[in-house]
Amino acid sequence: MLNDTILQKKVLREITSLGVHDCCSIFFRHKRQFAFPLHTHEELELNLVLGGAGIQRIIGDHIGHIGHAELVLVGPNLPHGWFTLDDREEDILEVTLQFRKELFTEGFLNTELLHAIRKLLDNAGRGILFTPDVAERVYEKLLALDKMSGFDSFIGLLSLLHELSVAKDTTLLSSVSFSREEIVSESRQLEQAFEYMNRHYGNPIALTAIAKVVHMSEASFSRFMKAQTGLTFTENLVELRLGHVARMLVTTQLTIAEIAYHCGFNNMANFNKLFKRHKGCTPKEYRSNYNRQMSGGN
């Protein structure tokens, strides 16, 4: 079992200023450095960064660098942070909107009208990256929302979430297995397939076996998974295993080889190649980088 307590101790737990009776809180900050350590909090957070090209972002097990306009929705308790890696001469604008999922009751979100918003909030558990054009449009909405109060602020928030829920070309940043998010799908067969892979990821998983679990032929299951996820069975399995690898790199002291074998990778050369292709760095660099940001270093 992975030692999640290590992750919880290393990642700063932020106590936000959002009051119990508040709809949301919004902050506009001009800065040249991002020095706040990797952290989590119970609230959902929409973070907009303008003029910060090259800044490093960490969301769950995702590590990347941002462009000029960055907009990410982060779910509750998902480790996240932005970090400057060099000295800046020009100000960066950061706008942070925080709100609680409890603001929207289960019955409210279950209505057909809010189906897209429900899916948005569920996917936020992995971190959602929006395109630069959406980021720039949302900036205007955030300016307007900051001037609202009372019931108007709730309607403004709902309108903003609707725009995000219908946005195209979004990217889910953190892997399901790192974020410990359940696969929520309209297809019970897809959920069963991922449940099986999550239980047995450390062992060989044959296409034949998983096809039997969902009562399909191998060919039908292959087409089904590709249509549902955009990835092949093998690609999904690799992503899931790498998510478990990433979590173990930051929650255990096991060697990289031990972690790789534990997560179902039996060929170290192939494992290292896959990890670098998906994460953009070697496992050693990933562990070092993540641990450095958890301790607040740059």
TrEMBL record:
- Family matches, as InterPro entries: Homeodomain-like_sf, HTH-like, HTH_AraC, HTH_AraC-typ_CS, Tscrpt_reg_AraC-type_HTH
One example GO MF annotation: DNA-binding transcription factor activity
Q: Which Pfam families match?
A: HTH_18
Q: Does the keyword DNA-binding apply?
A: yes
Q: Gene3D superfamilies per the record?
A: Homeodomain-like
Positions the record marks as coiled coil are: none
HTH araC/xylS-type domain: from which residue to which, for each copy? 191-289
Question: Keywords in UniProt for this one?
Answer: DNA-binding, Transcription, Transcription regulation
Name listed for the protein in its UniProt record:
Transcriptional regulator, AraC family
Q: Look up and give the organism this protein is from.
A: Chitinophaga pinensis (strain ATCC 43595 / DSM 2588 / LMG 13176 / NBRC 15968 / NCIMB 11800 / UQM 2034)
Lineage runs: Bacteria, Pseudomonadati, Bacteroidota, Chitinophagia, Chitinophagales
